[in-house]
Amino acid sequence: MPSSCRRLGAPARIISENKLDFNLLNSIERIELPRQVNDMPWFADLVSAITCLAWLFLLCCRGFYWLMGDGLTDKRMKEHDGVSSWPKVCAIVPARNEADVLGETLPSLLNQNYAGEFHVILVDDHSDDGTSEVARNIAQTLLRQDRLQILKSAPLPNGWAGKVWAMQNGLHEVPPDAEYVLLTDADIRHPESSVSRLVEQAKRQRRDFVSLMVRLHVESKWEALLIPAFVYFFAKLYPFRWVANDKRKTAAAAGGCILVRRELIQTADGLTPISGAVIDDCSLAKLVQSRGATLWLGLGSDFASVRRYTSLAEIWNMVARSAFVQLNYSLWLLVGTAIGMTLLYLVPVVITIAGICLISLGHTDWIWPGMLGLVAWCIMSATFVPILRWYRLALWRVITLPAAGFLYTLMTIDSAIRFWQRRAGAWKGRPYEMH
After folding, report:
1. Could you tell me if 304 and 390 are in contact, meaning their C-beta atoms sit under 8 angstroms apart?
2. Burial 380-410 (b: 16+ CB within 10 A, else e)
3. What is the domain class of 74-310 according to CATH?
4. What is the distance between the alpha carbons of residues 264 and 179, in angstroms, rounded to a whole number?
């Protein structure tokens, strides 16, 4: 074929190809979805409406759980004007194999600038990593030997959880003239005014039990994905305002930092009623509430955990250890939780994306469910913003909350499976069973 003919044929081929593309586009626009999808809008309407109403309820009627405040800071103390005299405080620190973190945390307790008398009891819960020696060396280096007492925990009796037994051992050493007991974990780094803040809060608010959700460590990708969501879910389960409302019976605490009146726990039976508790902090809150205590729960902005979770497996095992306990080992609560988490965190995303795709293909009957799904997703994201700000994380991470909710649902199901299979776990080298 002559070159001139080939040149004349090129535009014709281009026109032909463009015509083919145009026809293909028309055929895409005329795609007919399977009958099951075309018949789904009524179901999508129902599910999206339920989900949207659920989020509106959570937004307005769940104690404004997502507005957790600025936390217990020095700015709120007003120069301790709520305290005329500072009572004696004794801290109990259960410690099992904590030698690697004590260098970061114990000095923050021993160097408290508390105006009253303050003493620390570190209960070594049968550590095999030299925890007691490390604590003793830290106190000697800081010249704070007079402020620290190291106690070896007695052998663990049957039916007792290790941490609860360690706290019970520590209670036996608390002097009777101490007004408050500070229960704090070995991985918590305190600001130098922490005891003053806690006592001032207890006195000013007339609370017998003050607990702080400390800032958990967020550095690895898994921590950034799951830890803020963990605090968010905890606050939704136990709205902080409800805990502080004496008219309600919501009892909760964050075990890393609890200040409690001594006479509420140093009783004839002490912590025996919660001896086997895996979720010891909330169990303790319920126990003291049953003994007439008034509660308060808030954020500890510069109270921090130095415990690191570098992998998904570490966080997974931490949650699976106690998630099914939280549900009282109930199959029905597990099923309800799985359905509820799916409706709240997965359905808005799925329906919004499906609605956008189907509307673009001309299926206008998906406009309503798509809009409701988008509204639910927006409310969900908005309620997650305050906790992201508290953790100083980028706001784009609101889009990760559905993924975190899905993973926590799987962890809860796995926790139930472990219980049903009677698979014993281990915590810091000590076997335990959920029972």
Report:
1. no
2. bbebbebbbebbebeeebbebbbebbebbbe
3. alpha beta
4. 10
Q: Model confidence over 21-61: pLDDT tens digits?
A: 545 444 444 445 555 555 566 788 899 999 999 999 999 99
CA distance 91 to 148: 10
- Residue 431 CB neighbours (<10 A): 8
For residue 192, what are the β-bridge partners? none
Place of tokens 């989900």: 51
Tell me the DSSP string of 96-133: SS-HHHHHHHHHHHHT---SS-EEEEEEE-S-SS-HHH
In angstroms, what CA-CA distances link 42 with 48, 279, 336, 363? 10, 43, 23, 13
Do 10 and 18 contact (CB within 8 A), yes or no?
Answer: no
Specify the pTM: 0.87
The answer to whether 91 touches 150, Cβ cutoff 8 Å, is: no
Contact criterion met (CB below 8 Å) for 256 and 305: yes
- Report d(CA 429, CA 435) in Å as an integer: 19
Tokens 């160097």 map to which residue? Answer: 111
Q: Tell me the domain boundaries of the chain.
A: 41-64+329-422, 74-310
User: 215 by DSSP, 3-state: which?
Assistant: strand
Q: Please spell the DSSP secondary structure of 242-304, one letter per residue.
A: HHT-TTS------TTEEEEEHHHHSSSSTTGGGTT-SSHHHHHHHHHHHTT--EEEEEEEEEE
- Write down the mean pLDDT value for the chain: 88
